[in-house]
Design a protein that fits this description.
The complex is a heterodimer of chains A (344) and B (133). With 344 residues, chain A is an alpha/beta fold. Chain A has a single domain, classed as Ribonuclease Z/Hydroxyacylglutathione hydrolase-like (Metallo-beta-lactamase, Chain A), CATH 3.60.15. Chain B is mostly beta strands and 133 residues long. Classes of the chains: A alpha/beta (344), B mainly beta (133). Strand 16 of chain A pairs antiparallel with strand 4 of chain B.
Chain lengths: 344, 133
């Protein structure tokens, strides 16, 4: 029987999602190396398989570092999906930073440089590839069909993307202007197979979900049986007054959700509580379950001062298979109810 | 660059510290850390302190930084940890923040990519220039 499989791999501070389509080809939605080596390298995972698309959901390194070796070395990557447009102005913007004269300015520059190097390596690998299609993602596009699976883009809207373009252009012409949060470029992918829907929320913020809800309704898509929780379970991805991404989720059967915490500060406690109420949660990492490293290595005696730390790994991989009748089977990973961390 | 009145303090009672003999000054700087603001994130700010030539990332309460005029990404600051004597003879530890540059001192700092990446950038711009996007 044909099946749709989704594998979510932890990396402690980044995300990898691999879709295996019914005919065996792959779709890669973000990829980040695993420092704990709890998964094989990306080229081994994709060896011998057609990669229908490699998708960078938004231009942040924790979502794309492992797309570089994929684009450099995998012989059969058919298309690259992304949401960063006007690449000339975009690269002008990322290869300079706003800095201040001080003794620490080199460190501030180096932080930005790491990000610029990541994007230069990624798009450099892409530019050198022949026979690869580019697909700029935005919500007004027709779905892409692979092996009978339709992939809809529910966000970002073109208007939002244009807002970024305008800022890049203004920066390129010498105007000093702040940039909107790059997470606003995060794509929301709705993967539909027969009557099942999988929602991959990347780091999409509530603004994107507000309009994604309308696109979901207009396209008459079913409720999701599987959700990749957006933005690491942060508060700013959820609309607390109106419709939130949880309203996309099926109640019967109760949808499953997959969470990448990214750091020890995530998920936000109230978001996590709501996730537990509405979905069956599987965490790759969860900051509420504990963190790695010293809380206060500099010994700063100030309330709430704490070091940035990595979250504890709950599941190195969560693998889920869906059959044509919408039956969902968990192949790897334990949910929060069964987790020994006993989170509330 | 920065006016000296742009400072703020957060005073935290010292723990496990015995009263000491009266000294010349009621406030003594214990150490001075330099860093910069990485990200404003609501109640907390993410900052980088530079210690032994390496950044150590921390979350600090936003109000302490904002009250001192430290509000912009990459804005450098100093944090003094000081000890002061209370009226009952006990000692408290406190922190003073001081921006090392104002938001108006900002400049555009081009990143010095290595030769290999400069080449990549040329290839990127050649392939994905305006027309193709």
């Amino acid at each position: 029987m044909e099946k749709l499989r989704i594998d979510f791999y932890e990396s402690g501070d980044g995300e990898t999602t691999i879709i295996t389509f019914p005919q065996g080809g792959l779709g890669i939605v973000d990829a980040h190396p695993s420092p704990s080596q709890s998964r094989s390298d990306i080229l081994s995972l994709c060896a011998g398989k057609t990669v229908h698309f490699a998708c960078l959901t938004h231009p942040h390194a924790d979502h794309g570092v492992d797309l570089i070796p994929l684009l450099e070395s995998h012989p059969d990557v058919r298309s690259f999906w992304h949401s960063a447009s006007s690449l000339d102005a975009f690269f002008f913007w990322i290869t300079e930073t706003t800095n201040y004269p001080s003794a620490v300015q080199n460190f501030a520059r180096d932080m930005r440089k790491g990000w610029a190097e990541f994007l230069t390596d990624l798009y450099g690998a892409l530019a050198r590839r022949e026979n690869i299609q580019y697909h700029l993602l935005q919500s007004n596009q027709q779905p892409v069909s692979i092996d009978g699976v339709e992939i809809h883009c529910l966000g970002p809207d073109e208007a939002l993307r244009n807002k970024f373009e305008r800022v890049y252009r203004r920066r390129a012409s010498g105007e000093r202007t702040g940039l909107p949060d790059p997470n606003l470029l995060s794509v929301v992918l709705a993967v539909q197979w027969k009557s099942s829907l999988v929602l991959l929320g990347s780091d999409a913020l509530k603004e994107t979900w507000d309009s994604a809800y309308n696109h979901h309704r207009r396209r008459k898509l079913p409720k999701a049986i599987l959700l990749k929780v957006p933005h690491h379970g942060a508060r700013n991805a959820m609309n607390w007054q109106r419709t939130s991404y949880l309203d996309f989720c099926s109640r019967n059967p109760k949808a499953k959700s997959v969470l990448f915490a990214g750091d020890a500060e995530h998920p936000e406690e109230e978001v996590y509580r709501k996730l537990r109420e509405r979905t069956d949660v599987f965490c790759l990492t969860n900051g509420l379950a504990g963190a790695v490293g010293e809380v206060n290595p500099l010994g700063i005696n100030m309330p709430t001062a704490r070091a940035v730390r990595r979250p504890r790994i709950c599941n190195p991989v969560v693998s889920i298979e869906i059959d044509p009748h919408s039956n969902l089977n968990v192949l790897a990973g334990i949910n929060c109810t069964a987790c020994p961390a006993h989170l509330p | 660059m920065v006016s000296q009145d742009q400072t703020t303090e957060r005073v935290v009672p010292a723990t496990h510290r015995k009263p000491r003999k009266e000294q010349g000054s009621s406030r003594r700087v214990l150490r001075r850390l330099k860093g910069f603001l990485v990200e404003n994130r609501g109640r907390d700010c993410k900052v980088a302190f530079i210690e032994k030539d390496s950044p150590i990332f921390y979350y600090l309460p936003s109000n302490a930084l904002h009250q001192a005029g430290i509000t912009a990404e990459n804005q450098p600051f100093e944090m003094d940890e000081f000890e002061s004597k209370n009226s009952d003879g006990s000692f408290s530890t406190g922190y003073t923040f001081r921006p090392l540059a104002n938001p108006t001192d900002a400049f555009s700092d081009p990143l010095d990519l290595d030769e290999k990446r400069r080449e990549k950038l040329k290839v990127i711009l050649k392939r994905f220039g305006k027309a193709k996007n």
